[in-house]
Give the backbone structure.
Amino acid sequence: MSERQYNDEEMAAIFARASETERTALPASAEGKGLTLAALQDIGREVGISPESISLAARSLDEAGRPVSTRFMGLPIGVGRTVELDRPLSDPDWEALVADLRTTFQARGVVRYDGPFRQWTNGNLQALVEPTPAGHRLRLQSMKGDARALMTGGSVVLAGSVATLIALSATAGLTNPGAATGIGFMALVGLGMFAAGALRVSGWARRRKAQFDEVIARLMNSARSVTPD
């Protein structure tokens, strides 16, 4: 873990976890640069935080995994977590993880094996395990496909309404009350579709992130409980 470099956001999170009572500002020379654990410990010593606290905070951050987000028009339609495990994920660990996923998301899902690769999928919800030199990498990810479809469809309808409005304005076609009413109705339909999709994603993204965090925390706690001292 000492070779890994932490970005600004991760550094802030480590210092926040290492000391709940004080907010530690990074030196200006560290901003925008990746720093190793040893470098973070050196900074911690300067502000009175022990190397052990920094190490524990960094470990907890690593165990939580790196967040992954897919955005559409600025909204989170896809979320995920990628966790680097420092040991291979055993068959019992994998089976326990699948059972946890089925309970957490109330979905049976489908388990597949492809050589050293394993996956559990339920529609757009996926858990993927792949080998790494140090152990395994776990990817949890999900996509809100119906919201994207609504926002895409709404945008198309709204854009079409605007294009029609411009075309009719150029040809004086708006003098027809029926045409103007029809365009207004289609614009409202498009706006409503987009709003319906947008309203769905925010709460969904927060819920999925929390569920991923809980699944990962239980997996890490289980791994620690069976790891010999």
About this structure: Residues 79 and 125 are 10 Å apart (CA to CA).
